[in-house]
Amino acid sequence: MAAFPLPSSNPTHCRSSSSNPSPPGPSQPSLLVFSGGTAFNGVVEDLRNFTTRVAHVLPVSDDGGSTAEIVRVLGGPAVGDIRSRCLRLSDQNTCEALAVRRLLGHRLTPDPRQAKSEWYDIVEGEHSLWIGVSKPYRETIRAFLVYFQNQILRRSDDSFCFSNGSIGNFFFAGARIFFESLDAAIFLFSRVSDIPSDSLVLPVISTNNRLTLGCELWDGTIIRGQNEISHPSNGSMESINKVRSLVPELSSRIKRVFYMSSEGQNLLHEVFPAPNPAVLEQLSNMDCIVYAMGSLFTSVCPSLVLIGIGEIISSRSCPKVLFHQTVELYIVFGSNYQKLASLFLCRKL
């Protein structure tokens, strides 16, 4: 197996004017945040000025957009939410760090042909996005992009669509497949993007397999797939503005969220994946538990429904903060939304 170099985590090029996060130390409070990959991102950078001792717990079941195409062709867990949070936590204090962030945060054009052409320019190292990225970083990042491309070519029966593709997702997927480990891919991404050492990005389920989220409505309807729950589409690769999208109308309110089989004949079969042991460990020791804003049923609940998560939370007497959109809670739960808040903050969760 080939070995890829890890660049130094302290590039010394010109400094940006962005503020530095507070230096880590025991005086900083420690938080564990349950969230998705979009809505809470707006808080992340300001939160770093308060504390960097944060464990970000994210689902790996998002099956929309660029992630959907990766999962369709290469399988594995969804990496989009993980990649999104890693980029938000990445260093911005040097010109090179900003260049790396621009590269890994870049999205290809919606036009499939133009997207494929642009992708080849990036893989071959000829795209302008490489400007400002030093040779060690360039070699490391490009190696995993090339590996991702090779994996696509090996699946000759499946034509990959690069439309709206995320370069960060491609890098992340390449690293995960190479190491055969989601945790190793997160470690590599954290090093490349220079995330503070005491800030953790944790998949709620540590797996190399595809995960499928489902829900049951009160009228008995079963919906398969996270994207169909939160952002139903016509099957196109069109990019979704998750921040501004309204809660879609369903035929009935959601009764429960659960994980479904991703293989075999019975795709409606309920499965019970084990939570990431690292999440359970952090959950037992953090000073505060935060339920962040986002889609309640597709950002927060995919973590809470796992066996063992709720039990640890209910045993903790630490502060618990529900940071959510009242409008969405009212749409989903009607006049009972205040009881939901009580359930989260004062009782079982």
UniProtKB/TrEMBL annotation:
Q: From the UniProt record, which GO molecular function terms apply?
A: LPPG:FO 2-phospho-L-lactate transferase activity
Which regions span the lipid bilayer?
none
Q: Where is this region: Disordered?
A: 1-30
Query: What is the protein's name according to its record?
Result: LPPG:FO 2-phospho-L-lactate transferase CofD/UPF0052
Question: What is the species of this protein?
Answer: Parasponia andersonii (Sponia andersonii)
Upper classification of the source organism reads: Eukaryota, Viridiplantae, Streptophyta, Embryophyta, Tracheophyta
